[in-house]
Amino acid sequence: MTKGRESKPHIGIYGRRNNGKSSLINMLTDQSVAIVSNFAGTTTDPVKKSLEILDFGPVILIDTAGIDDTGDLGEKRIAKTLETINHIDLAILVISNSLWGDFETMLVENYKKTDTPYIIVNNKQDIAPLTNEVKERLTKLPNSPFVLDISATEKTGFKELVQAIEKSIPDSSWQTPTLLGNLVHKDDIVMLITPIDSEAPAGRLILPQVQAIRNALDNNAVPIVLKETEVEAFLKNTGIKPKIAVTDSQIFAQADKLIPNYVPLTSYSILLARLKGDFENYIKGTPKISELKDGNRVLLLESCTHHVSCEDIGRVKIPKWLRDYTKKSLEFEMVAGLDKPSLPITDYALVIQCGGCVITRKQLQGRLRDAIEAGVPVTNFGMAIAYVQGIFKRATAPFVNQND
Prior knowledge:
The protein has helices at 21-29, 71-83, 102-113, 132-138, 158-168, 207-218, 231-238, 252-258, 268-276, 279-285, 313-326, 361-374, 381-388, 392-396, and strands at 10-15, 47-53, 57-63, 90-95, 118-122, 146-149, 189-193, 222-226, 244-247, 265-267, 297-302, 331-336, 350-353, 378-380. It has three domains: 10-174, 3-Layer(aba) Sandwich (Rossmann fold); 189-271, Rossmann fold (3-Layer(aba) Sandwich), CATH 3.40.50.11420; 276-388, Rossmann fold (3-Layer(aba) Sandwich). It is globular, with a radius of gyration of 24 Å. The model is unreliable at 1-6 and 34-44 (pLDDT under 50). With 404 residues, it is an alpha/beta fold. Strands 2-3-1-4-5-6 form a six-stranded mixed β-sheet, with helices on both faces. A four-stranded parallel β-sheet has the order 8-7-9-10, sandwiched between helices. It has a four-stranded parallel β-sheet with strand order 12-11-13-14, sandwiched between helices. The longest helix is centred in the C-terminal third of the chain and has 14 residues, at 313-326. 41% of the residues are buried.
């Protein structure tokens, strides 16, 4: 397995209180990174830990509260635990004392619903081996998970668990993000239009711009990085015809005028939509902008948190562009990070997701799942901007008949 430029897989640890979830994490890392106690419920909320699993590699482990927590606060902790399943690449369900019931069944049903692979770990097997009845029950679970006997405190079964993790975790969890995919090849000229405005981070580029540069280099293409103010002079003075031009979505209209029609044009956000988002549903959902009515609520999902400026794309510019385009009185809600919206998803007429450069594909698609299942239209920042600026077809044309 190549581990040079991959993103870290997210692995969630689940189970009842005092089943040994924290001891399992300490065994995997050979460190005391999780608090271990004989008192049930030591772990109260999901906690992310960036760690190195021995003999495997770097991962993000998510230590969750017991799925059998009690009381009003316990119910909230269980809800938080279940939310994490939307954002992981692999689940490890820890059981002990041959105890399998409604809690475990609920977890497995959530794994199945979210297409999350999982491993069953029977902890404390040196004290209480699995009964034949439970063994038979586990053979009938969906997706045929690995079922392993371990003792986290005695550190037995470690090698088998690491092997099971390596076999169970999806290949996509290790893939290097490739924004440009098969759009460019050796010696192709890639024009990357990179505005430097009040939203640009001081002294550096934003992550999608860096990823695009790196991906062009990986494809042995030639990236040309310039501000929008230099595009016209560059094309005129050099006579170069780029294979594709990529722009910041905020200046789509300007880039559309600057880039000749024979050069494919798209945006960093749309590249991310193709890489991580539900591109098919974005294509279907974007035109629903034209159907928005007075009083409709629009939910904007931003995956990172940052200082808000007067030119903020999600909180200021997109709402203004949508109101100007639709001529309707619309209401907007912005939710940052991986938080939940304040209202039921069916209360929104449209969901607009950012590119998601700082989260995994699984996390982004997990955020969209409720809306898609409820029939609420979804789109992406870049696609929505292209649509209201009249260049949606041009901006998405490079991906027609693209399969990767």
